[in-house]
Amino acid sequence: MTVSTAADWREGLDAGDLSSEALVRASFDRMRRLDGRLHAILAMDEDRSLQLARRADARLRAGERSPVLGLPIVFKDNLHWSGLQVSCGSRILAGYQAPYDATVVERLLAAGAVPVAKANLDEFAMGSSGEYSAFGSTRNPWDTDRVPGGSSSGSVVAVSAGYAPLALGSDTGGSVRLPASFCNVTALRPTYGVLSRYGLTAMASSLDQVGPIAATAADIALTLGAMAGRDPRDSTSVDLPGMDRLAPLRPGNLRGLRIGLPVEYFGDGLEPGVRDLLDAALQVFAAQGAEIREVSLPHTRYAIDTYYLLCTSEVSSNLSRFDGVRFGHRAAAGSLPEMIAETRDQGLGMEVKRRILLGAFCLSRGYYDAFYLKALKARTLIAEDFRRAFESVDILATPVSPGIAFPFGAKTDDPLAMYLADAFTVTAPLAGIPCLSMPAGFTAGLPAGIQLIGPAFSDVMLLETAHAFQSLTRHHLETPSLSA
Question: Residues 194, 200, 206, CA angle at the centre, nearest 5°?
């Protein structure tokens, strides 16, 4: 069975053959039938979504045309959509409702997109597998005994299982790209700042980015064009060059494209089946005239250490606001310090506690220079590796993950093994550059992806390159066999 893409639905809506209300009703019907097994959704407001769909239909009847007008979309539950919960997959935010819209949500609503649900996630976006939500694990629709990847597990599964053609996740070190690889969808982590972080619950502020998810690169382009651009409420936000090329997205010219293969990403840890899929994908590029050459990113061996030192340090700072005083869960205790300690003990999961403690240690007196400051210096070296590589190639092609989706519980008792699942995805965020995961095919019956990485602000070129590849292949259109 092949997927109906957002572009297909866009054509039907514009022609009057489909209505937004019918699409949204179908989304809710599919969620009701399937989510008891997949557990991708944490909250929804069907009446509100149908009301927005009817407004979209009225705009369509009036002759308005917009890339996302009338299309259903799912938001990761760390994004604010006013009036609905923002749980971040954590019990510490029990009862908290968003008092405002995130900028990306606000812009999508203005463009006529129709939110249908808030999606499950690893608690506070800390996880690579989808197993760390306080409300239960999301399951991979290709094999429900295996993880979907994290932390944007629910958002990716919502697209893979056909709940909606579009979704938003967040990507700090691979959180849209890794589950996209495990679930056979496409996901983009934009250049840092291209999408505003206002209204995205902060995990690691120098690394967090909102990431659009869809079946195809062309579908992602529809969403990106509606959201991107400078936001006065986010001082790190920037404008995206080439936005006029997003709708409609055209396939990029592969002839003469210089594709670099970082030798550090193709070592012994890469599963043979995944390597075979990557080689086959590269042959597709080469057959169209692309030039494939080896490059080196020599400081890659420090990437995991650098990422987790910086990320946990920022986590320990950002999560200090969750104290039971202002919002969410509050434990009963005799004094304010006791209340804060008990609230955090009751409300936070073990993985979040682990990262807070690691970060607090890295920032503590006597260790700041040895860990945090050294990691900042290593981050500069990693970014310089990419800058030098892009002097001789246009993009980089790498694995997304060393392997395919693994069984539940396979890595939860070994945090280091879990962190190493991010070995190929954490480097680009450290450099602030865009990267994209797209399906490369199937091995042992499960999907695996290929990652494209480009220089800063090459987001549109990455999407055009992915679109050219997907115009020549079909496996990204395959969907899992699901029954209620």
Answer: 60
pLDDT computed for residue 3 by the predictor = 75
Cα–Cα nearest to 289, from 251, 250, 253: 253
Q: How far apart are CA 278 and CA 267, in angstroms?
A: 13
> What token pair was written down for 215?
């079946």
Two tokens, residue 59: 């705009």
CA 464 to each of CA 252, 307, 328: distance values in angstroms, whole numbers, following the listed order: 4, 29, 43
Residue keyed to tokens 């095919």: 441
Distance from C-alpha of 188 to C-alpha of 418, rounded to nearest angstrom: 22
Active site residues: 76, 151, 175
Classified as helix, coil or strand, 158 is helix
Token readout for 108 is 């999508």
* CA gap 437, 264 in Å, rounded: 18
Task: Output b/e per residue, 286-321; b: 16+ Cβ within 10 A.
Answer: eebebeeeebebebbebbbebbbbbbbbbbbbbbee
Residues sharing a CB contact under 8 Å with residue 446, sequence separation 6 or more, in sequence order: 142, 143, 146, 182, 404, 405
Angle of helix 6-15 relative to helix 217-227, nearest 10 degrees?
70
**Model confidence pLDDT, tens digit, residues 196-233:** 999 999 999 999 999 999 999 999 999 999 999 999 99
Whether pTM exceeds 0.85: yes
Q: Is the dihedral of CA 182, 187, 189, 193 positive or negative?
A: negative
| Domains of the chain with bracketed CATH | 6-258+454-477 (3.90.1300.10)
Cα–Cα distance list, 347 to 80, 237, 352, 403 (Å): 20, 32, 10, 33
pLDDT tens for residues 287-345? Answer: 999 999 999 999 999 999 999 999 999 999 999 999 999 889 999 998 999 999 999 99
What's the mean pLDDT when you consider all of the chain?
Answer: 96
Instruction: Tell how far CA 470 is from the center of its chain.
Output: 19
